[in-house]
């Protein structure tokens, strides 16, 4: 579904991504782990072109996204992104936040969009919060609204960049549960995370990145119990 070949990215002289190769199949959940500064966020941002890669190819369903003729807006409609900071619109209600993108970009009528927003809020456990403003919600609830907002576009895949890193520890579980249920429903997901329990339980594949490289990848069971590379061993021994 998404195929990354020889992806590289430089900021000036700083080489942040070095020859990254990764194929993501439809329905697959890939977790990316690794130390801070290793290029994980830049990698996700290069996938949906929030950053321009310096080299390499990013293909989505066989089309090269770096091709000038490619409609990147279409890709962003189909592949949603959830960030560490949820950036909900403070002057819109929760339901309005969820409805906004389909109304604006898909010209869905408001009644239909509102109905859909309520369904999605129900799905993330927040139906009763539809009419309140985001600042009355906890961080974990706001992040679940952000997930509902991404789902409103009916994406085929979702990219998550440390969706629980900004949350108080007691709020992390509810967000991970929503992500877990999406994974169960077959959503294709690339998740940058420090939640090793989540990666172990939910990922089909774990990618360990360090210094701009994919150092090691494999089934979670193997990566967490028998990492082959020294870098992976050191990283995991520090956090597990
Ligand atoms: P991670 O998400 O793994 O913590 P990042 O992708 O955020 O890593 O960053 C990788 C490296 O790229 C870091 O050294 C960071 O300082 C650098 N970097 C990220 N974004 C920029 C930018 N816009 N300009 C310059 N350097 C950047
Ligand atoms: Mg990051």
From TrEMBL:
What residues does the ABC transporter domain cover?
2-236
PROSITE patterns from the entry?
A: ABC_TRANSPORTER_1, ABC_TRANSPORTER_2
Sorted alphabetically, which InterPro entries does this protein's record hold?
A: AAA+_ATPase, ABC_ATPase_HisP-typ, ABC_transporter-like_ATP-bd, ABC_transporter-like_CS, MetN_ABC_transporter-like, P-loop_NTPase
The organism sits in which domain of life? Bacteria
Which Gene Ontology terms cover its molecular function? ABC-type amino acid transporter activity; ATP binding; ATP hydrolysis activity
Identify the keywords attached in UniProt to this record, alphabetized.
Amino-acid transport, ATP-binding, Cell membrane, Membrane, Nucleotide-binding, Transport
Gene3D superfamilies found in the cross-reference section: P-loop containing nucleotide triphosphate hydrolases
Q: Where in the cell is it found?
A: Cell membrane
List the protein's name: Amino acid ABC transporter ATP-binding protein
């Amino acid at each position: 579904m998404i195929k990354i070949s020889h992806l590289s990215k430089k900021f000036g002289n700083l080489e942040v991504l070095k020859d990254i190769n990764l194929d993501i199949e439809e329905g697959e959940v890939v977790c990316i782990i690794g130390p801070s500064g290793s290029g994980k966020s830049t990698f996700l941002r290069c996938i949906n072109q929030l950053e321009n890669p310096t080299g390499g190819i990013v293909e989505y369903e066989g089309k090269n996204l770096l091709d000038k003729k490619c409609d990147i807006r279409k890709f962003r409609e189909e592949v949603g992104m959830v960030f560490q900071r949820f950036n909900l619109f403070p002057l819109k209600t929760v339901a309005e936040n969820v409805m906004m993108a389909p109304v604006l970009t898909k010209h869905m009528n408001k009644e239909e969009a509102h109905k859909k927003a309520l369904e999605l809020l129900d799905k993330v456990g927040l139906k009763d919060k539809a009419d309140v403003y985001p600042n009355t919600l906890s961080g974990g609830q706001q992040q679940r609204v952000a997930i509902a907002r991404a789902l409103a576009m009916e994406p085929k895949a979702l990219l998550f960049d440390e969706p629980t890193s900004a949350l108080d520890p007691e709020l992390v579980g509810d967000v991970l549960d929503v992500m877990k249920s999406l994974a169960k429903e077959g959503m294709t997901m690339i998740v940058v995370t420090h939640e090793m329990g989540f990666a172990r339980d939910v990922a089909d594949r774990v990618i360990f990145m360090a210094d701009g490289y994919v150092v090691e990848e494999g089934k979670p069971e193997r990566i967490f119990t028998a990492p082959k590379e020294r870098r992976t061993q050191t990283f995991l021994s520090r956090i597990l």
